[in-house]
Amino acid sequence: MKSLFEPEEDFFAPLGRALAQVEPALDLAEIARVLSVGSGVAQVAGFTDLHADELVRFPHGVMGIASNLREGRIGVIVLGDTARLRPGDRLRRTGRVVDVPVGEAMLGRVVDALGRPLDDGGPIEAEARRPVERPAPPIMHRAPVNVPLQTGIKAVDAAIPVGRGQRELILGDRQTGKTAIAVDAILNQRDSGVVSIYCAIGQRASAVARVVQSLREGGAMERTVVVVAGGNDAPGLQFVAPYAATAIAEHFMQQGRDALIVYDDLTRHARAYRELSLLLRRPPGREAYPGDIFYIHSRLLERATHLRDGHGGGSLTALPVVETQAQNISAYIPTNLISITDGQIYLSPDLFEKGHLPAIDIGISVSRVGGKAQLPAFRAVAGNLRLMYSQFEELESFARFGTQLDDETRAKLARGVRVREVLKQREHDHLGAPEQIAALLAATEGLFDGVDPDDVAASEEKVRQAVRNDLPDLAERITGGERLTDEDRETLLRRIRVALGQGGEGSDGNA
Description:
Layout: H1 13-21, E1 31-37, E2 41-45, E3 54-57, E4 63-70, E5 73-79, E6 90-97, E7 99-102, E8 110-111, E9 128-131, H2 154-159, E10 169-172, H3 178-187, E11 195-201, H4 205-217, E12 224-229, H5 235-253, E13 258-264, H6 266-279, H7 293-301, E14 315-323, H8 332-340, E15 343-347, H9 349-353, E16 366-367, H10 376-382, H11 385-399, H12 407-423, H13 433-444, H14 456-470, H15 472-479, H16 486-499
Parallel strand pairs: 8-12, 10-14, 10-15, 11-12, 11-13, 13-14
Antiparallel strand pairs: 1-2, 1-6, 2-5, 3-4, 3-6, 4-5, 7-9, 15-16
Helix pairs in contact: 5-6, 7-8, 10-13, 11-12, 12-13, 13-14, 14-16
């Protein structure tokens, strides 16, 4: 009989079998050490082979981009919090560049500059990953910009039209409504099939939360991706954010879809890059910006285009935002971006203080694509709007001197005041093209001349309702891109007069 203390013969057999199945594996990695850590950058040494812009991994899951490659010392842009890094920490190569997840799974999500979710939607199961830096499409792959991107804002769609594939700069002093115009453009794509990407760079968390809330309330969040690099994030993340957002948008463009991207704003992006460059001991230039500050924005915005059908046929429209100081649009960064983009929408603080919202200065704003990216009916009605409005503003400035005015001049001033009232618009009040055309036609043809300026908004609402309810066929043809014939124009004017109680016959809606 065996003793109770005598072990069974096969007691250690399972352990032996497990040990037999274990095979040693070698983890080959090139390791370097941190020499010093600053605010957003680190100096490292020890790599014998490292590529420019390669991603490296620090302890605690912090990533970095190899930027300054020098013999014996490498400058790394840290994409995260440097407070947990210490001199002597080990880091290793990853063998890849910075990339982000792309695809349908990104829609409706709020992510950081590396594509990591910031909302409560769980992990992102993306179709693929794309590098954040990609060369812009060559010239021969690009098609002309001739399809309008309706913003729903009368002053923009009528006087400063934006086309799909265009780069239109939004600039102005702080708190003049730049973000509101960009968000309204996103909200107005509800039925257009355009995918939107909103990239917040250096913004306060409360400001980003308001934008996300506006997108959700407007029903636009399910077709929008929000990329956030907040003001409290590392400058490296703020620098990478717009490139990551562009990579996400390019995926949709190359699938043949139309995408809209908003960079809010590139002034903070330039400041983040200046901070990184100075910390990396790069030689400063004008206003302490590095010499390649123009290039970092040009290589970003050149990726926005309209592709030919043989290369996908999609488009990427860019609305970069830049902040000016004391209305100085000739400052360094605004001048650079004006020269890169295809036009600008300038928001005047003077108009904002007078309550003229949106505070768009039509005289300074311009679209270099022009009427080519505008519905034909818009061109027929608003073709001379800019000229007429500029003449009105000039007459108004002379009238302040109290000179004697003839009846014709008084009539031009009165009409100009009504046109200005029509161009006013509440935030998130998006108008379709037929309603905008009807309101502008009524103003330019003098149908509001007898209306008190304070009552123009109410009269305009009557005109809009008349077009929606009484002229559905004409509205559909306008939206479809058909020209506004003389007969259509007379039908529209007749219906407007009836709506305003100025006589005329009704229409049966089958213009």
